[in-house]
Amino acid sequence: MATFLGINLFGLSGQLLVGLINGSFYALLSLGLAIIFGLLRIINFAQGAIYMLGAFFAWMALQYFGINYWAALILVPLAVGIIGVLMERFLLRPIANEDHLYSLLLTFGLALILQGVFTQTYGSSGLSYAIPESLKGGTRLPFMYLPNYRAWIIVASLTVCISTWWAIEKTKLGAYLRAGTENPQMMQAFGINVPLIVTITFGFGVALAGFAGVIAAPVYAVSPEMGSNILIVVFAIVVIGGMGSIGGAIITGLGMGVVEGLTKYFYPEASTTVIFLVMVVVLLVKPAGLFGKEA
Q1: Are 84 and 207 in contact (CB under 8 A)?
Q2: 208, 28 in Cβ contact below 8 A?
Q3: Which of 30-34, 163-167, 193-197, 242-246 comes out lowest in average pLDDT?
Q4: Domains in the chain: how many in total?
Q5: How does pLDDT run across 181-192, given as a tens digit for each residue?
Q6: Whose CA is closest to 15, among 263, 274, 273?
Q7: Residue at 290 is within a domain
Q8: Which domain holds residue 219?
Q9: 246 contacts 38 by C-beta, under 8 angstroms
Q10: Are 295 and 256 in contact (CB under 8 A)?
Q11: 40, part of any domain
Q12: Rounded to 5 degrees, what angle do the CA atoms 127, 132, 151 make?
């Protein structure tokens, strides 16, 4: 057994891998929340349910229609994004000028409805989704065994997160998007369809959760509770990174996953609360979050 200063390197490496995998999902879900809140000022409490919906859609696509993992990776986020577009257009837009609490309560109610429907239909026990054949197996590294699918989760998550950050922060489309949400009257004067921008942005934000659900399906049991179990943690991560900070959501999501993994190794009893402890400390020191801006 490889040890260094009394530390089991195999055990530590394994927990770091688990932390990176969890952090990959935290980053994707936090990014979606940060986009929706940062650009649209909508508190989307249904993000966890959408994540669950993505996993169930992938499972149903395979079971009922024979659609494999790689096709589901494209089709499911599109389907979830369309659902998000309909949510924004017919449910959230009518209350767009009301207090933020209204959107929180509405999306929270939607999350409960979705969870209840899937629990009633499929039960609360988890459903299995097979790892695609091309990603089975793994690689033996000096201090750990790295399953190919786990490595794919990290690569896929980082690719999507960094591409999204670049598109929003560094492209002309992203500039239109930011301007349309910060000063909609001016953009409409220039002939920009601001309501369409808002709808597409919301749809893309929830599509990220759908994508996370698809890549989570082969790792975690596909169950109605999988969204509610992760949502509170993701909201804490968004607060730590700074509400609305795109880059902060990505960095904090990955970082908190690693912190959680290290805590599981060194002090397992605190692993379920460490993220919330960090949130409390950050709010006391920097209420706007690590990467947020003061109002």
Answers
A1: yes
A2: yes
A3: 193-197
A4: 1
A5: 666 677 677 677
A6: 263
A7: no
A8: 8-285
A9: yes
A10: no
A11: yes
A12: 100
In the block, which residue shows the tokens 């169950």? 223
Which tokens is 249 given?
């959501």
Residue 195 binned pLDDT confidence (cut-offs 50, 70, 90): confident
Instruction: Please check whether residue 1 lies inside any domain of the structure.
Output: no
- H or E stretch at 138: strand 138-141
CA atoms within 13 A on the CB side of 255: 14
Question: How remote is the C-alpha of 23 from its chain's centroid?
Answer: 10
Q: Are 62 and 72 in contact (CB under 8 A)?
A: yes
Smallest Cα–Cα separation from 239: which of 294, 206, 280, 295?
280
Judge whether 291 lies within some domain: no
pTM: 0.92
Quote the radius of gyration of the chain (alpha carbons, Å). 20
* DSSP, residue by residue, 102-131: HHHHHHHHHHHHHHHHHHHHH-SS-B--PP
3-class DSSP state of 44? coil
pLDDT tens digits, one per residue of 46-69: 999 999 999 999 999 999 999 999
At 140, give phi and psi (nearest 5°): -85, 115
Residue 90: both structure tokens together: 């017919």
Q: Return the CATH number at 203.
A: 1.10.3470
3-state helix vs strand vs coil in the chain, percent to 5: 75, 5, 20
**Confidence tier at 91 by pLDDT (50, 70, 90):** very high
Residue 274 near residue 263 (C-beta atoms within 8 A): yes
Q: Hey, what amino acid is at 201?
A: T
